[in-house]
Batch of 4 targets.
Target 1
Amino acid sequence: MKLYQEGERLFGLPSKSYPDLIKIEGQLDLLDRLYRLYNDVLNTIEDYNDLSWLEVVQNIEEMKETVQDFGYRCRNMPKKLRAWDAYTDLKEKLENFDRILPLLTELARPSMKQRHWSAVSKLTNVEFRMT
C-alpha cells in the first residue's frame, strides 16, 4: 500500500485509496499467523514422532507445556480464522495430541513394568521398542 502511495507521489499522480488491497493485506496477515502456528504444530508433532521412548519419558513435561502453548495460541486466533479449514484441522490435531498426552504420561511412569508393557502389546497387537 505504502509503495503505491509513494509511486503516485513520485510521479505526481493523485493519491487513490485501494480498499481491496487493504482488505487483502489484512487477510494475508491473519493467514500468516495461522499458517505459522500450523507449521509449528506440524513440525513439532513430526519431531515428537521421531523420539525414542526414552526421549519421550525424559521430555514428557516439556511436550505437555509445548502443546498447551500451541492450544493457547490457537484459541487466541481471531474469530475470522475459525471458519477456515486450516484452523479446523489445526485445532483437531491439537485436540488429538492433547488426548494422547495423558496416556503417554501414564505409560512413562516408573511403575510401568515389563508385564504391563506385555499386556499393552497384546491388547494393541503392537510390538514396542523401549530404547
Target 2
Amino acid sequence: YGLGFTNSEVLLLLAKVRGFIAESSPHNMQKSLLYIMYTLKCSTQEMKSVVLEFPFLFYFPVPVLEERINKLLKDGISVDQIKEEPSVLELTVHIIQYRMQKLIAADFDVKNVSLKHLSGTKKDFEANYRKLQVKKERPLFNP
C-alpha cells in the first residue's frame, strides 16, 4: 500500500527504525497500517503523517493495536482524540488504564482534551501530571 513517500522521507524513516527493519514483516506492517487507517478513518495524507511521526506503531500486530484502540474507545476516548495523538497507541492497555485513572482521580477530564497527557515515557507522564496538579491547586484569581 503506497503512501507516496519522497526519497528524503524514506531515508528519515530508515534512520528512525534501522534496528527494527530486519525484525519486521512487510505483510504484517501493511496489515497494521491498513487497520489503523481504517479504524481511525485516516486519509492517505493523514496516515503518511502518522507513519513519519510514529513509525514504531506499525511494528505492533493488529490484535495489539485492536486491544489498545478498543480500550480507549471503551473508556470514552474519541477516534479524533486518538488521531490527534496516535503515540498513545504505543502504550500498553495497563499503562493507559493506570494513567487515565490517575488523571480522572485528579479531576482531569481526559474525554474532552488532547491525549498528550497520557502519552510519553513514565517520566514525561509524571512531569505532565505534576503540572496539572499545580494548575488545579493554583487559584483562578489572585489579586
Target 3
Amino acid sequence: MEFEGGDDKTFNQEEIQGLIQESVESVLASATYTHPKVQLWQATIVENILKKLSQLQRPFKYVVTCMIAQNTGGSTHTAHTCFWDTETDGFAKLRFETTTLVCLTTVYGMAI
C-alpha cells in the first residue's frame, strides 16, 4: 500500500527508535534524577515524540509511554502484548540509563 509521501504503510521501527532517542536524549542527557522534575521530563519527552511522529504525516495512530525511575541498581522489567495487524503495525522502544536514572520509552503505531 502507498500513501502520501510514497512510503509503505508499515511501521518503521528503526526510524521511530531514532525519534525516541533524539527526544529522550534532548531532555535527559545531562539530567540527574530529581523526583520533582520527573513528571515534567516525562511530559516533555512524550510530547516531543508525538510532535515528531505527526510531522511524518503517516496514516497511524500512536501510543507513547515513558517511565523514569531512580537508578538504584535494581532491575526493571516490563511486558506488553498487542493484538494488531503484524503486516503494518509495530512498536519501538528505548532504554536510556545514566548513573542516577533509568528511562523506558515505547511507541506503538497502528495503521489506520
Target 4
Amino acid sequence: MMEEAGQYKTQDAETEGEITPPPSVDDVDDLSLKKVDTQQRGASSTKKVWFGLIAVLAIAAIAVALGVLLFSKGDDDNEASDSVSNPSDRTSAPTLDRTSAPISDRTSAPTLDLSDMEAMAKVVLPGVDISDHLNQSTPQYRALEWLTYHDSRNLTIQDDSIELLERFSLATLYFARGEYGDGKEWLSSQSHCTWHWRTTCDENGRVVYLNFYDEQVPYWTDGVFRLPPEIGNFRNARSVDFMGNLWEGSIPTEIGLLTSVTSLTLSYNHFEGTLPTEILNLNDLNYLSVGSNQLVGTIPSEIGEMKQLQYLDFLENTVSGTLPTEIGKMKQLAHLDLRENNLSGTIPSEIGHLQQLTHLRLSRNIGLTGTVPMEVGQLELIRRAYFQSTSLTGGLDDLVFCKNQDSAYGFSLEADCEITCECCTKCCARNGTCVDI
C-alpha cells in the first residue's frame, strides 16, 4: 500500500514535471475513509432515486384511475341528461308530455297519464266519458292512443277539429276491422284521405265517399267485427258502402247522423236486430240497401216519409209483419226488393201510387196472401215483378205491365204455377223450382 502511495502523482505535478512527496499513512487512511463514505453515499442516493421513481409511478397510476372513474361518471351523466333533454332521440318517446309511453304489447303496457288522451277525447269523442273506453282492447281506445301519442302527423287539439275527428274515426274503423287495411297506407303520416284507395275527400279534406265494397276481413283474422258508432262522424259523406264486409252486431244508431248521405249500402253482412229508426231521418237518402243480413222486426210505417228514396232493398232478412200502406207515399221509388223475408198479409193497394216503380220483388214470403191488387197491375213501367213462393191467388192476366214483355229493356214476370198468368216468363213450384214458359 506504501508502494502504491509512493507512486501517487497529482495532475498538477505531472503538468509541471515535478514529483510530489508521497502521502503519509494518516493521509492514506483519510483517503480510504473518504472513498468508503463516497460509495455509501452513492448507494444511498441510488436507493432514493428508485424510491422516488416508484412513488411517482404510484401517484401517476392513482391519478389515471381517478381520471377514468371521473370520465366514466361524466359519460353516464351526459347520457342521462341527453335521455331527458332529447326525448326525440328515443324510439318510443311521445311528442306529448306523459309519464310513460304506451307500447303495443297490451299485456305489459304501463299505466298511462291520461291527461293528454282526455284532452284529445274532448275533440274526437265529444260528450263521451273517456272512462267508457279505458278497455285497451276497444278500437276507440286504440285509435285515441295512436292519435295522441303515435301519429307522426303530430296534430294537436288546436288543429282542425274536423280533420282530427275524421282521422280518429277512420283509425277506429281500421282497428275495428282487426287492423286489416287491404295493403293500403293505413295510419300513415299522410292525410287520412289517402289511407284507403276508395275513400275520397273534397277540396277541403272532408270525406265524401267511404267505399269498402266487398272488402271482407280475411278468415284468418280472429275476432268479432262490429261497425263502430264513429261511422256517424263523417257528416259530409254522400256515399257510404260497406257491402260484403261481414260486419256483425247491430247497425249503429249513429248512422242516422250522416245527414249528407244520399247512398247507404249495408248489404251482405251479418247485421242483427232491427233497422234503426234514425236512418229514416236521412232526408236526402235515395238509395238504401240492407239486404242479406239477419235483421228482424217490421218495416216501420215512418219509411213513407223518405220521399227521396228511389231504391229500397230488404232482400233476405227475417223481417216480419205486413207491408205498411205508407209505402205508397214514396213517389220516387223505382226499385222495391223485399224477397226472402217473413212478410204476411195482403199487398197494399197503395203500392199502385208508385208510378216510377220498375222492379217489384215480393217472392219467397210465404205469408203473403190474397191477390195482386188491380192498382199494382196498372203500373206501366214495371220491368221485373216476382210473386213466386207466396200464398197469393187469382190471376195476373189483366196486368197492364204485361205489355212490357216486348220492351227493349227486358221483362221478367215470375209467379207460382197455381196462378193464371199468360204473360209470365217463369212458372214456379212451391218448392221454388221455376221453369220457363
